[in-house]
Amino acid sequence: MIAVGGAGAAQALDIASSAQGWANDTGAPQFFAYTNGAADGNNTFTGNEFGGRFNSWAAFDIPVGVYTTVQLELALNFYGDVIGDQIGVYDVSTAYAVFENGTTSDDSTYIDLGSGSNYGNFFALNGNIFTITLGGNALADVNSAAGGKFLIGFTNLTKNATPSGDLQDDGVYTNGSSVGSPVLRLDGAAAVPEPGAWALMILGFGAAGSMLRARRRAAATA
């Protein structure tokens, strides 16, 4: 029997976000912008400040592959009274280039980061590193984004329920000087064999076929 190797084993990957940022709903004069662009280690404030509301995002470079589960690992920094706040995790339909260049002139990116397909929710507790399993819609989007960028949006669902006239300066950070970048943990199906592995497999199948034909001829002449 000829053993044929080379087909990739199932993948298990931890992917740190490559860039992060925020978007606000007012174009607050303190910032003169609705977004702060994209950078690794960027400010990712999610909550209320300067009389406006802020959502944040993180971008991940997804390797080519087929994935079966997706988890999100976070550590939070707190600003103000946010213990117990519920944070929503959402899909992002805005193109990465818009966040990268900070080109928005309205609150459309802010709205996008806190609406659409919900991937899951979590509570801001103690600032410890924790992991949440994202829903099947997130998994489908990760697989669709394989080989490119995948973005996640964060919004403070608790603070969003506060009337605009009662906004307090408080929120959470999903990334900062003392907190590592958000991480996607992906489990995947077996990798597609490399071209060299395909060649070995074809040779192996050919050799196995030759052996079978030889046995049949031997049996016929016995």
Task: Describe the protein's architecture and organization.
With 222 residues, the chain is α+β, with helices and mostly antiparallel strands. The chain has 2 domains: 10-190, Jelly Rolls, CATH 2.60.120; 192-222. The chain is built from 5 helices and 12 strands. The model is unreliable at 1-7 (pLDDT under 50).
Please describe the topology of this protein:
Blueprint: E1 10-16, E2 19-24, E3 45-49, E4 52-61, E5 67-74, E6 77-79, E7 86-91, H1 96-101, H2 108-113, E8 118-123, E9 130-133, H3 136-145, E10 149-156, H4 157-160, E11 170-173, E12 183-190, H5 195-221
Antiparallel strand pairs: 1-12, 2-4, 3-4, 3-11, 4-10, 5-9, 5-12, 6-11, 7-8, 7-10
Tag the structure with descriptive keywords:
222 residues; 34% strand; Jelly Rolls; eight-stranded antiparallel β-sheet; alpha+beta; disordered N terminus; four-stranded antiparallel β-sheet; 2 domains
DSSP strand content: 25-35%
Looking at how many chains there are and whether they match, the oligomeric state comes to single chain
Helix content: 10-25%
How many separate helices? 5
Sequence stretches where pLDDT stays below 50 over 5 or more residues: 1-7
The CATH topology of the largest domain comes to Jelly Rolls
What would you say about this model in short?
This protein has helices at 96-101, 108-113, 136-145, 157-160, 195-221; strands spanning 10-16, 19-24, 45-49, 52-61, 67-74, 77-79, 86-91, 118-123, 130-133, 149-156, 170-173, 183-190. With 222 residues, the chain is of the alpha+beta class.
